[in-house]
Amino acid sequence: MKNLFSFVLFGLLFSFQAYAQEKPLFDYEETKHELSLDIDPVINGNYPSTLLYRRHYKTKNDKNAALRFGLNFSSDFRTIETDFTPINSTDFQNHFYAITIGKEWQQKLTTRIIGYYGIDLGFAYSGSRSKPNADDPAFITTQKGDSFNYSSIGFLGMKYHFSPHFSVSAETGASARFNHSIYTEKRGVSPEETNETQSFGLSFIPLRAIRFAFHF
């Protein structure tokens, strides 16, 4: 039993020594900039819309870290024809814009893999509009909604390097959010009605993003 334990211990020490001597595939001293695209929507059949920029650097304690800046945007304009006689069609608009700023701390796990964790602070705006097209204003009901979201997101992830310049990563996280929404409706010639709501929530994000990145 002692011989088996000694053999396993020797094997582990040899493995760690070999890893320590092996040069990592990536070097953030040479590729300090990183631009990535969240490909999770592509897997679900949608268009990608989230970009993330990282600026890698060394802390005062010689630890690997990065500053993060994220951008998410989408817009949709549609006109739907209707068979309802007074209304010819209805115009729809939907917009979503979000930015995040954060910091992450990194730990090399192998020559190709790093683990990381950190926090993002975010702001998001979403807006929707709908307006029927009709000759008589009495049949027009215009609706619009605006939502303002403030968030703090803690995240944990892993990144795998295919090469010094390309990698893929996955993130999970937990968020605290405050939301302020304004809904407005105007029916015909009646006065405009406005309703405002505020909410606070905590949520767990099992899969926040799957990012494909270019390092330069």
Commentary on this structure:
This protein has one domain: Porin (Beta Barrel). Helix content is 11%, strand content 67%. It has helices spanning 2-21, 40-43; strands at 33-38, 50-58, 64-81, 87-108, 113-134, 141-163, 166-187, 193-215. The chain starts with a helix and ends with a strand. Mean pLDDT is 88; it is low at 1-21. It comes from Indibacter alkaliphilus (strain CCUG 57479 / KCTC 22604 / LW1). This is Outer membrane protein beta-barrel domain-containing protein. Keywords: Signal. Residues 1-20 form the signal peptide.
The name of the CATH architecture is: Beta Barrel
Q: Helical content, roughly?
A: 10-25%
- CATH-defined topology: Porin
Strand content: over 45%
CATH class: Mainly Beta
Work out the oligomeric state of the chains in this entry: single chain
**Spatial order of strands in the largest sheet:** 1-2-3-4-5-6-7-8
Low-confidence stretches: 1-21
Shape: elongated
If helices are DSSP runs of H or I spanning 4 or more residues, what is the number of helices?
Answer: 2
Organism: Indibacter alkaliphilus (strain CCUG 57479 / KCTC 22604 / LW1)
Keywords: Signal
Protein name: Outer membrane protein beta-barrel domain-containing protein
Signal peptide: 1-20
